[in-house]
Design goal:
50% of the residues lie in helices and 22% in strands. By secondary structure, the chain is of the alpha+beta class. The chain folds into four domains: 155 residues, 2-Layer Sandwich (Beta-Lactamase); 105 residues, Beta-Lactamase; 86 residues; 129 residues, 2-Layer Sandwich (Heat Shock Protein 90). It has a five-stranded antiparallel beta sheet, with helices on both faces. A five-stranded antiparallel beta sheet has the order 7-6-10-9-8, with helices on both faces. Strands 11-12-13-15-14 form a five-stranded mixed beta sheet, covered by helices on one side. Strand 11, helix 11 and strand 12 form a beta-alpha-beta unit. Helix 11 runs antiparallel to helix 12. The longest helix is centred in the N-terminal third of the chain and has 64 residues.
Length: 496
């Protein structure tokens, strides 16, 4: 009786323990002893035994049924497929069986899959929402940055346009395809052409440069590849009102536009007023030189007409006096007369030399070639320096001013050679070609180191400066080349 009560008590406790596990429809719990007798079941009658059931025979095949657990799917007497889970209970040797039919498992798994699918969809939607919010935030930030950048770009472009338009000197921005993108107001104010008047480089060059158009376009086409600023030089441009102005151009490349076109900026300094002042100064200097030559010519004429005449008369009178005296006259008186006649002849030669220096004989009447030949012959007589002339027999008559400049440069070079060079020979080469005259004067003298700065010696200072200024006054160029021991070469080029 006690054993029965104890057994009943254990069965009740085990059943209570088993019922603690959650169950669902289609899930049944069983407890059986080691012989297969059903002790507890929530799905079968107590009087039934599990021995005839296939899952109990499978349990009996386990080597140590008290230490193992197993699951097996088999068909019960009702024809349904069930999954059996087994676990031993010690020390009684009992067993706990939990069986589930396939439909319940499928329903649970389907529910799980549906829940998983719903969870996945919700998770995906959540992630998508978060990603969309993140994307919208990034797009908003990018839009804000783009808007700010565009605003700054617009402000920068506005400032650049203001800088160009309000520039105090002429400025043009132009593209390689010939479009004039913009010009400054000063450009319009000085030449009269607005942007509408000159929308392309071709129209601008046609209006402003006339015959120089092609050469100007060739220069402009090289501007788009510049690395550094380039000075194109001075050009005379025609303004809208028909007058002319002088602009000194310089340009720089500005890279590319958004459409890939290369652009350049051309700037100009209006030097019209400066050029006018320089022209006025040059004209004044030329006029002073002409006045100087006129004065020299007048002095030379006065010396010839007055002093030369008087010296000649004085010489004749002395000859008459000398001839009127007989040989018995006082020897001292005769000697004094002869000395006076020699002095008069010396004074006459000096006067002729002075007159020749003041105004080259034959220049006005016979031209430059005759004057050079005469001066060279007189120079050789006075200095014993040989002169080699490589000059044409004649050249067309040039303007009086140019002929005087050529002669004065030759005269000054010969004088420097006689005073300083210690030369044995001077060579003169004169060439005339289509309105351009080239003069080269070279000697085999000592040479020197040219110096044109302030404080220079007479050799490289006043004399050379005078020759250079004379050449520049008539639009010519002057070049000096000299080295110690290698002589001196003077080169002059003047175009009519």
């Amino acid at each position: 009786m006690v054993g029965f009560l104890a057994s009943s008590f254990r069965i009740a406790n085990v059943a209570k323990f088993v019922r603690r596990f959650a169950t669902d429809q289609g899930i049944h719990r069983h407890i059986a002893d080691r012989n297969g007798n059903l002790i507890y079941s929530d799905g079968f009658a107590y009087e039934k035994k599990l021995a005839p059931y296939p899952f109990f025979s499978a349990r009996q095949k386990i080597s140590d049924p008290l230490e193992q657990t197993f699951s097996i799917a088999d068909t019960l007497l009702d024809g349904r497929t069930r999954h059996i889970s087994y676990a031993p209970l010690k020390p009684e040797g009992w067993s706990v069986f939990i069986d589930r039919d396939a439909a319940t498992i499928l329903r649970m798994e389907s529910g799980f899959f549906i829940q998983s699918a719903i969870s996945s969809i919700l998770l995906f939607m959540t992630l998508a929402l978060l990603l969309n919010q993140f994307r919208n935030r990034i797009l908003a930030q990018q839009l804000e940055a783009s808007t700010l950048a565009e605003k700054e770009l617009n402000q920068s472009e506005f400032r650049f346009r203001q800088l160009i338009e309000e520039s105090p000197f002429p400025v043009m921005i132009h593209a390689e395809d010939g479009e004039v993108i913009m010009i400054s107001r000063t450009w319009t104010e000085l030449c009269g052409y607005s942007h509408a008047d000159i929308p392309t480089i071709a129209i601008w060059t046609e209006k402003a440069f006339d015959a120089q158009k092609e050469s100007v376009i060739e220069v402009i086409e090289t501007l788009y590849d510049l690395v550094h600023r380039k000075s194109e030089g001075e050009y005379v441009i025609n303004t809208k009102d028909g007058t002319s102005r002088v602009w000194d151009f310089s340009s720089v490349s500005l890279g590319q536009l958004s459409d890939g076109r290369r652009i350049a900026m051309s700037m100009a300094s209006d030097i019209t007023d400066r050029k006018q002042v320089e022209e006025e100064k040059r004209n004044a200097a030329v006029r002073l030189m002409e006045i100087e030559e006129e004065i020299k010519k007048q002095i030379s004429s006065d010396l010839h007409d007055e002093i030369g005449r008087d010296l000649t008369a004085l010489g004749i009178n002395l000859e008459i006096i000398r001839d009127g005296l007989n040989d018995s006259a006082n020897e001292k008186v005769l000697a004094r007369i002869d000395d006076t006649a020699s002095l008069i002849r010396s004074i006459s030669r000096t006067a002729r030399n002075v007159m020749g220096n003041l105004r080259p004989p034959g220049l006005d009447d016979f031209g430059l070639i005759t004057a050079i030949n005469h001066y060279a012959n007189q120079y050789m007589l006075r200095t014993d320096i040989k002169v080699a002339l490589n000059i044409p027999d004649e050249v067309p008559r040039l303007t009086d001013t140019i002929e005087l400049v050529i002669f004065r440069v030759l005269q000054e070079s010969f004088t420097n050679c006689a005073k300083h060079a210690k030369a044995e020979q001077v060579t003169v080469d004169l060439m005339y070609d289509d309105g351009t005259i080239n003069l080269i004067i070279s000697d085999d003298g000592a040479g020197f180191i040219p110096y044109s700065g302030e404080g220079a010696s007479a050799i490289s200072g006043i004399g050379l400066k005078s020759m250079k200024e004379r050449c520049e006054l008539v639009g010519g160029t002057f070049h000096l080349d000299s080295q110690p021991g290698k002589g001196t070469v003077v080169t002059v080029r003047i175009e009519e």
